[in-house]
């Protein structure tokens, strides 16, 4: 067992140093979105058996970081383990597409394997610009890649993403080496908007040899704008459980393999996490081994191989509705909807329907114009895409701002509740 150090993600120099030490076998790192002051540790018995243990000492903690860990947790109050298995180098908390937090434990081997696979896929090492929070796996991996490449990682300053600060910092990157960064779709969209007004930002954005884009689906309209502007984007697919993106532009990188079980995507890779900290039941459900010892991560996504052999993610496995007896993958509907002008950020959810059971509702922030015309345009688009009639949107929910999770992803449960209320 070894210590688990909680480091504020906002202190990038301290986080970088801690990650470097962790990769060399030192204390593991847990990047936090805000600074936390640990209370004195209270002893507790060690947990038996599993590779990832919640035993050692526990620290009572307040706020959203606290949660019970396994059966060794005290019966009352929130607790945080301060020791982890010797293999672990990094712990990241993720809620995925839900509000149920998971603490993903990653070994140094997994982190380095992911970084090496990224550099191989991009054609070599280079210098990275950090534009994402370090408590997310995508941000932490930018720092890890810089450490593996032995090049200093620069950080975009400020608590909120600023295209001007991004451009100014990118101008300080080393010459004569490839330049890389990682963004979420919202950041890319803001940069593209700013680039239309500011040539300096446009030049900065197009100066990168690769701009990784992941975290959520990239709207076709944003991808088309990026291509037209000369931005070299790489669409990534992965999660905290795979140490970040492990499929680039639909193709597995490194030694990643993929397969499907009843349409659900499963991934095998040397970059897989050891499991969930203090949650052996959840770990056993998400990580399974074949008879030959190959470990597979069972994702929450549905997918298939397209005609060109690339992975196509259809949507979340838990985001399927049954309308009139027909199964509809809402992610496929959403992909078509977002390709319609004015709906790039729309979210599609299931809404109750007295006749069909469920029908598709489209939620959008701002002004959708004439709602009847907008709905007709969306129905025409789904028909043209070859989706079943049951997939046609029947309701438009217009709000000032879409509910979001702390991860920056749409809060689909809250949006579904709004859609249900609008039906009343």
From TrEMBL:
This is O-succinylbenzoate--CoA ligase. The gene is menE. PANTHER family: LONG-CHAIN-FATTY-ACID--COA LIGASE, NONRIBOSOMAL PEPTIDE SYNTHASE PES1 (EUROFUNG)-RELATED. Transmembrane segments: none annotated. The keyword Hydrolase does not apply. The lineage of its organism: Bacteria, Bacillati, Actinomycetota, Actinomycetes, Micrococcales. SUPFAM superfamilies: Acetyl-CoA synthetase-like. Residues 332-409 form the AMP-binding enzyme C-terminal domain. InterPro entries: AMP-bd_C (IPR025110), AMP-bd_C_sf (IPR045851), AMP-dep_synth/lig_dom (IPR000873), ANL_N_sf (IPR042099), ATP-dep_AMP-bd_enzyme (IPR050237). Keywords: Ligase. Coiled coil: none annotated. Residues 34-77 are annotated as: Disordered. Residues 79-253 form the AMP-dependent synthetase/ligase domain. Signal peptide: none annotated. One of its GO terms (molecular function) is ligase activity. The keyword Glycoprotein does not apply. Gene3D superfamilies: 3.30.300.30, N-terminal domain of ligase-like. It comes from the Bacteria.
